[in-house]
Amino acid sequence: MTMPGRRKLLVPEVVQTSAMDCGPAVLKAGLEGFGIRASYGRLREACQTDLDGTSIDTLEGVAGQLGLTAEQIMQPLDHLLLPQAEALPALLVVRQPNGFTHFVLVWRRLGPLVQVMDPALGRRWLSCRQLLDETYVHDQRVSALDWRAWAGSEGFRRPLAHRLRLLGCGSSAQALIDQAATFPEWRPLARLDAATRLVEALVQGSGVRRGREARQLLQALVAAEDQAIPGASWSVQPASAQPDGVERLMLRGAVLVRLGGPAGAGAGPSAPPKSADPALTAVLNEPPRRPERELFRLLRGGGRLPWLVLALGLALTAGGGILEGLILRSALELGRSLGLVEQRLLAVATFLGIGLLLLALELRVAGGLLGLGRRMEVRLRAALLEKLP
Fold it and tell me: Cis peptide before 89, with omega less than 30 degrees from 0?
């Protein structure tokens, strides 16, 4: 059993029970991945899942109240899977082929592969390119001051420095970032990020070589005007309208809820966190469902006697089949020694009588099984009707 706070190697597999339950399903997988047992049904109630699904704000709040460290953030798409961004594990919003959004749990990255728990399909291993292609890209209006404060933090600078080093900038990568960070406005860091993204695309398309050529082009783009860089390369651009006079930007990136283990979990084993909300307490305290026990209880609903009688009938039927084979073999041998017609007729009548007796026993056993099946179906239907509102 995994202690609360210690992340499992493989993400627990939780399959959603309806098309709208992807949020509670990925949250349950995330909780159990950190060793916190949660009831799926109670979690669905706590997340207030309705016909429109579950909001990402609700998932963030419920995850935090159940003991996880949860933070809703946006990341540029090319920062999402970089170890320097420290964005995983996370509940990620992706886009399905039909255009609807969907929650998945991105658990960990292993080289070029990413371990993903998709509640519609189960545990999957996707390439980084596959996951990024499926990720939903959202546009969000943010304050220019807030974005500049975040861009000056290590959460933005470390992934950017890693991308610059991959282009061959080497030791000059940190110098480029430090130079852009000396300006209090947002444009220098945003321009460096956009120029890096453009040069990355050119390198991947074999238009520019890594190293000296890529570094020179990058420095030229940083020194040029903003118009020299295509709009698709910018992760943040000025918003079209500034109604209140506050400068705002349009941030473009992936939407996710970054998850972490319970606070203080490294101090040693601890019990799952307790919530003051009764609905959330029920999520943690409700015992796990055991379908095999429920099935056994339904099977025993009519008492033990019918099952004992059926078991005895099946045993007699099996024994009768063996006996019938022995009698048939003996009849072939007795045919030579039975000289009188009366003796032969008596042997045939005995054989037919045993066959009819076994047939009647088999019919009785089959009827008993059908009757038990009908009664069990009635109990299953009654249990289902109790669950329906």
Answer: yes
The tens digit of pLDDT for each residue in 89-128 reads 999 999 988 888 999 999 999 989 999 999 989 899 999 9
Q: Nearest CA to 195 among 169, 135, 94, 182?
A: 169
Residue 63 and residue 36 in contact, taking contact as beta carbons nearer than 8 Å: no
Q: Going by CATH, does the domain composed of 22-139+256-285 fall within 3.90.70.10?
A: yes
To the nearest 5 percent, what fractions of the chain are helix, strand and coil? 55, 15, 30
Stated as kind and residue range, the H or E segment containing 87 is: none
* Rg, C-alpha atoms of the chain: 34
pTM of the entire predicted model: 0.72
Asked if 36 and 303 touch (Cβ cutoff 8 Å), the reply is no
Question: For residue 346, what are the CA distances in angstroms to 209, 342, 360?
Answer: 100, 6, 21
Which has more pLDDT, 6 or 230? 230
Secondary structure (DSSP) of 248-305: EEEEEEEEEEEEEPPTTGGGS--PPP--SSHHHHHHHHSPPP-HHHHHHHHHGGG-SH
Report the alpha-carbon distance of residue 187 to residue 149 in Å, rounded. Answer: 12
Question: What span, in angstroms and rounded, lies between the C-alpha atoms of 186 and 283?
Answer: 44
What would the two tokens of residue 327 be? 């009698």
Strands 137-143 and 90-95: unpaired
Which DSSP symbol is given to 111?
T
Question: pLDDT of 216-235, one tens digit each?
Answer: 998 899 888 888 889 889 99
71 sits in which H/E element: strand 69-75
Alpha carbons 188 and 177: distance in angstroms, whole number: 9
Q: What are the sequence ranges of the domains in the chain?
A: 22-139+256-285, 141-248, 291-387
Q: Which DSSP category does 139 fall into? A: E
